[in-house]
TrEMBL record:
Organism: Deinococcus cavernae
Location of region: Disordered: 331-419
A Pfam family: PG_binding_1
Compositional bias (Pro residues): 353-402
SMART domains in UniProt: S_TKc
Every Protein kinase domain range: 15-287
Protein name in UniProt: Protein kinase domain-containing protein
Length: 778
């Protein structure tokens, strides 16, 4: 994160930056001086992850449009104005607010002491009696914040300040948001693993005081044990919490156990309920609540109703294949009960979600209808596989942050066997598998007669089938691969499952890909399971959309032929490279005992001479046009039995790190100005075909003059290299790893966001496979 340098001034010299106090996902906090009074202050700068700074000017993240950035500054301003009204000793005081250099700044009192995180790092676990007092102070402060209609949303040891004077101060309200109890709202996704509850892992949810209570419980647990708690998804999959000290007060133990409940309804619903548990048995005196002067409750910011989306993530959400998520709207088809959006593309109105091939995960959040608070309907569980989720375009480019309402854990009926974890896992695998196939009836057999479908409310299975049928037609090629273990919740004959997956859906003109998550509510009779509710969303930062113009097929075919022709140079002993590998593959097809190592050694020379003799050619061991022609002619009759007809399947691909060519330092993205080698990993399902060459082209995405722009770079990179710096390649098991030399220079007035890499990999059977991946520019 690029922070302001010490000595920088803001608001015309009124404030001087002295150094950095801390930084998080939404901003940077500086030690500063109010120059007129020569008074120490702290200044919080609105600087979300992905924000760039050129000079002193701030440019918003690539995931923010101009309207979203303006809204972020308005929210920052509103929250600062509200916080400024608090007169509570345990809430940091806000002194000033202004905009400068393209972003917003909040001026606060500067505290002397250390954060709870720093204390834990310095001393380890705290005494349980000290944690008891800390719990009371923070809970009371949270009660004041919640009474004003605000949630902190990022409570953790870093955001509790232990001042030298003895104050325990809540700090860093840069992530705070308004809420209305019981109302589903869209929030920017904010997750601090270990402290964030499950509802913060989505894009829409019913947030409330219980959201902060979970984070408070996790923070106090850390203080007691000296260890950060497992993340909420890990807890749901069975990872245990570290044991509390034996001398932990009973009330504190009870409060923490309740606060860390995965289900919202099992947690204390307010800070006062938490304090009541903390104080012990009912006979214990109630903890007096502070009576600070409270501002008028903050009205929740107007919600931009994005359309019910189930982005590509929908794939996994939408039943048999998250079809709905990706399914776009066909204006020629009759409107269905819903208006789903299209995959990660521009949402289009459409019928109920029938997402991408996998159990689609809509970009939309949980259904607008209240999530099931009792066991999902058990209407005759038909033998129906998951139906597609609505194919909707991701509503807004905001990261998914949906509440994952847990199904009520109804007491299992005595004569209905409980659903086992193994059954659920098998069901999810079948759900994803059917998502990529065309058996619509099998997909629909995964659904109950009535389903709570994303934000479409309750939908009939017949409506889902119509939606999925349209989705299948729109995206005839679909692929879904689960990328995480499944998180299970519930018991008896009612279970809930959450998982992430990678999707790729395409037709003749368009391809969508990325990662998403799906949440399914399941009921069963011990033998059969059906879906009664389906939710999910895509992770917008991962989605990729590209056009597949019909002429591309000819272009790729011509490119493959041209690249294959470059593999026919005159070869002799001592040569190496992909042309030699191709030669050795052809010789192997004729029964020659030669390895495919890319080096023309004595073994290869003997094999060439033997082949030349068998064909009446001069047996000189030199591979020229005549020998190439004879080898390929013979290959025509044997290739079907020796060489696969297709390229291997690419399961997924991604960038790992970029290594600076001079310093050797590694980064997760491309750093401006320096030559770096960035590793593109392609996970394959091998079929015997071997890569012989590859060509990479690039395009830059950036902001300039307030507009998002894209520019194709003229230079290309090739393997085998045709110059320096060279593309490096190696096979690591089933992975193809290309190390690409990349440099992007800074340009005045441009804010770079990513470099898009398009790679065409040619295999020894002449087939070409394409990859497309975004590499962030830091």
């Amino acid at each position: 994160m690029s922070a302001l340098a010490a000595g920088s001034v803001l608001q015309g010299g009124r404030y001087r930056i002295d150094g950095v106090l801390g930084q998080g996902g939404f901003g940077i906090t500086y030690a500063a001086t109010q120059t007129v009074l020569n008074a120490p202050v702290a200044i919080k700068e609105l600087f979300p992850s992905g924000t760039l700074r050129q000079g002193q000017t701030v440019f918003p993240p690539a995931t923010f449009g101009l309207q979203e950035w303006a809204q972020a500054k308005r929210d920052f301003t509103t929250e600062a104005q509200l916080l400024a009204q608090f007169q509570h000793p345990d809430i940091v005081r806000v002194l000033d607010l202004f905009e400068d250099s393209g972003t917003a700044y909040m001026v606060m009192e500067r505290l002397a002491g250390e954060t709870l995180q720093q204390r834990l790092e310095r001393r380890g676990a705290l005494d349980p009696q000290d944690v008891q007092g800390l719990a009371e102070r923070v809970a009371r402060a949270l009660g004041v914040v919640h009474s004003a209609g605000l949630l902190h949303r990022d409570l953790k040891p870093d955001n509790i300040f232990l001042e030298a004077s003895g104050r325990v101060v809540l700090i860093d309200f840069g992530s705070a948001r308004g809420f209305v109890v019981g109302q589903t709202v869209r929030h920017t996704r904010l997750v601090t693993p270990g402290y964030a509850p499950m509802e913060q892992y989505g894009s829409e949810a019913r947030f409330g005081p219980y959201t902060d209570i979970y984070a408070l419980g996790a923070t106090l647990h850390h203080a007691l044990t000296g260890k950060m708690p497992p993340s909420a998804p890990d807890l749901m999959t069975g990872t245990p919490l570290p044991a509390l000290p034996a001398n932990t007060p009973a009330g504190l133990q009870d409060a923490l156990q309740a606060a860390l409940s995965p289900r919202v309804t099992d947690r204390p619903q307010s800070a006062q309920e938490f304090l009541t548990l903390l104080s012990g048995p009912p006979s214990a005196p109630a903890v007096p609540a502070p009576a600070p002067q409270l501002p008028t409750p903050l009205a929740p910011p107007a919600q931009k109703r994005g359309f019910s989306a189930w982005p590509l993530a929908l794939v996994a959400l939408a039943g048999a294949g998250g079809f709905a998520l990706l399914r776009g709207h066909d204006r020629s088809s009759p409107p269905a009960a819903a208006t789903p959006a299209e995959p990660p593309v521009v949402p289009e109105a459409s019928t109920p979600p029938a997402d991408p091939a996998i159990p689609p995960a809509p970009t939309a959040a949980p259904p607008t209808t209240a999530p099931p608070t009792t066991a999902p309907p058990t209407t005759a569980p038909p033998t129906t596989p998951p139906a597609p989720a609505p194919e909707a375009a991701p509503p807004e480019p905001a990261p998914p942050e949906a509440e994952l309402p847990a199904p009520a854990e109804a007491e299992p009926t005595p004569d209905v066997p409980a659903i086992s974890d193994g059954q659920v896992r098998e069901f999810v695998d079948e759900y994803l598998r059917l998502g990529g196939q065309d058996d619509l009836n099998a997909s629909m057999n995964l659904y109950a007669e009535q389903v709570e479908y994303f934000d479409q409310g309750t939908q009939s299975r017949a409506a889902l089938m119509d939606d999925k049928r349209a989705y299948f037609r729109r995206w005839p090629r679909r692929s879904y691969q689960r990328t995480t273990d499944i998180a299970l919740h519930g018991s008896g004959d009612v279970r809930q499952v959450r998982f992430d997956y990678r999707y790729t859906v395409s037709n003749d003109t368009r391809e969508l890909s990325g990662t998403a998550y799906t949440v399914l509510d399941l009921v069963g009779d011990g033998e059969h399971l059906v879906i009664t509710a389906e939710r999910g969303a895509i992770h917008p930062e991962t989605k990729v959309e590209r056009d597949l113009a019909p002429e591309n097929a000819d272009e790729l075919s011509a490119a493959a032929e041209a690249l294959t022709n470059t593999l026919k140079p005159t070869l002799t002993e001592g040569n190496s490279g992909p042309a030699v590998s191709r030669l050795q593959t052809l010789l192997q097809a004729q029964g020659a005992e030669v390895g495919v190592d890319g080096f023309f050694g004595p073994e290869t020379t003997d094999a060439v001479k033997g082949f030349q003799q068998s064909r009446g050619l001069e047996a000189d061991g030199v591979v020229g046009p005549d020998t190439w022609a004879a080898l390929e002619a013979q290959a025509d009759t044997t290739q079907a039995a020796t060489t696969p007809a297709e390229a291997p399947t690419f399961a997924q691909w991604f960038f790992t790190t970029c290594q600076d060519a001079q310093t050797g330092a590694s980064h997760t993205g491309l750093t401006l100005g320096a030559l770096q080698f960035c590793s593109l990993v392609i996970e394959t399902v091998p079929n015997g075909a071997r890569p012989v060459s590859a060509s990479f082209s690039y395009e830059l995405e950036y902001l300039e003059d307030g507009e998002a722009r894209k520019k194709t770079i003229g230079a290309r990179s090739r393997w085998p290299a045709d110059g320096e710096p060279a593309v490096n390649f190696e096979e690591q098991g089933n992975n193809l790893v290309f190390s690409l030399p990349l440099t992007v220079r800074e340009r005045e007035g441009r804010q770079y966001t990513s470099i898009n890499v398009i790679g065409d990999i040619v295999f020894d059977n002449g087939r070409t496979k394409r990859v497309y991946e975004k590499l962030p520019i830091q």
